[in-house]
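SAMPLE LOG
Freezer: B-3
Tube label: C17
Construct: single chain, 388 aa
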Amino acid sequence: MSTTEALTITQFRPVRAVIHPPAFAHNLARVRERVGQSNVWAVIKADGYGHGLERVAEFLKQADGFGVACLDEALRLREAGCEHPIVVLEGVFSWQEWPLIWRNRLECVVHSHEQLQWLAHWLEHADLPCDTQPELDLWLKFDTGMQRLGFEPGEAETVVEWLRSLPAEISMHLMSHLACADEDNGQMFTQKQCALFDQLSQTVDGQRSLANSAGVQTYPKTHYDWVRPGIMLYGASARSGTSLAPTMTLMAEVTRLRWIEAGSGVGYGLTWQAQRPTLLAVVSIGYGDGYPRHAPSGTPVLIHGCKVPLVGRVSMDMITVDVTDLQDRVSVGDAAILWGQGLAVDEVAQWCGTIGYELLCGVTPRVPRQVAETALISTSQEVTSHVG
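STRUCTURE (predicted):
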């Protein structure tokens, strides 16, 4: 087998994730409309939510900066030639990361005393020219109610004074994270977080960042100097009044059609039984590709613009779909959309008892990503539903 054949053989299986560059620009524009003069950290962690880290950075280059989870992701961007401001949202995991933060001109979140001690250790042992003080942009993260990462609010003055005592030129900024902004009943708790964040602003006088995607869309009070949209940039988790476009269309093909009799079971465990003579379509995707194994019968799949139901258990490499109502139109080789243009990832996620984040991030490496410069399908596109 030649090298070329080895590189292309995995493309023969008819499954792909089509990435839509215009959708990123569309969604970023929706963010700008919401936040006015606030700057935008485009959050592209987790390999750009499954779309490809470097690829998404290029599509979102009009953002003011990028948010990543860890130093590894930030270094990938710098190695790819990205000159944007980059903030490392989880901060460092050892003292050895601090010189890399400094050398690569990265902004860094600090949320624990261990990270402060690691910073002091590096500054004490750093092999720097005499009279050289590293310049650092640090985002001090305080816990205003998420109960996850962050200093306690009562520690603010102590943390600030301690950082001022270090032999470095440190610009300090303020950050926290909203816990309930995406919940229908989260208004009171979000307001409480904002009030506490405003109090902290009296101690940390740098720039401020609080809003995630839900805050961007629902709570203008949370926008401050920088917003940190993630999932909405990928066309998911749209709140009322926000028109977003899907950035990924996960597609496969019908590889077999067969009729089964009423009462016949389908798939592993025969967990679904046909209630009528049924035309089944086998579609070339499964949990080995990141389609969720726990997707229940009834989960919609889009074929010929019609929502038809998944039936039976998801296998590693294939699913089965009831296409009886499309029997005069469906053929082997027809495209099946699992989510994306015409079928919102949030709708599929709701059927699966999860969120769009998990589905997008879960698409496995064996699924080729194909960039398509296509026009956006309207977010209000009408489709026919045959899901029972």
